[in-house]
Structure formats: structure tokens, C-alpha cells
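Researcher: Sit down with what I've pasted below and flag anything odd:
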Amino acid sequence: MKHITTLAVTVMLATAGTADAGGQEGTIGVGAEFGIAAILDGASIGGASLNYDAGMFHVGGFIGFADPEGADNSAYSIGGRFFYHVHSMASSDFGIGGQLGILSVPNGAPPEDDRATLMYIEPGVQVRAFLATNVALSFNVGLVIGAIDTSGLGVGGLPSGSAGFHYYFF
């Protein structure tokens, strides 16, 4: 009996491995993100997000909306991201990369309907923590760099951050 128990324990330990906990190649994550946009005087942009995990990296897109206090001052954002996973564990990964986005903001005092559409680049890092095999929280920290049509809007080297939630489908 002692030999059977020893054999059973040996087989279990030999075949046991790290449980896959998200970040799996070929999965699609659907969720939401909420960010702090320094270019909106502290107003936050939040919205839908989609990620495709390719194993060593993930790519994604987002659509966001913000409505700070006041009339006719809503902001809209759309963009994409890429993060290369420089370190991965069973339940988390650390990526370096960034985002490229287009932001539409009011340009002038209401009731003018004049808007500015600007492009920004946001290099940064991201940590994804998997709460389950297919549920992840993500946290980004980066630096917003204005690329197109940002003069006079105070964009350039501003810190940014965001948090997100994604459900991955296998």
C-alpha cells in the first residue's frame, strides 16, 4: 500500500504544472477601461475595450467617452494599443508598449460647436492580473505625447493612467 501511495503522489507531482490563468495565446478579451486624461483638466474617459492576446504580446482597441461638468464639452476617444509581455507568470503579466489614439474635444467656449480632433501617442507599461483563467484586471501608466493638432491644448509629456476589466473567451 505504501508503494502505491508513493507512486500516486509521484505521478501527481510529475504531471502537475502551472495552471493557465489568462494571457493565453489566441484569446479575445472584451471589457471596459476607465482612464485619467490630463488633457481634459482631470476629467476621465471611459468606455469599451477589446484585446487579442497573441501569447508574447497583446493588441487591442478602445472607444471612450467623457462628459465633464458644463454644457457642450463632451469628449470622445478611439484608438489602439500594443503591449509586449516582458515578464509573465501564471496569473499576471507585465507589458511594455503603448497606445495611439484620436481624441475629439471642445475647442473654444460654448455655445460654439468648434471641436479639436487631435492624435496622441502614449508610451507606457501595463500590468494585467488574472483573477481567474479568463478574467483580468489591467493597470496602465504612461506619458501622453501630442502628435497632431495639439497646439494650445496643453498636451505634451503629461502623465496618464488607466484601469480596465476584461473577460477572455477561449
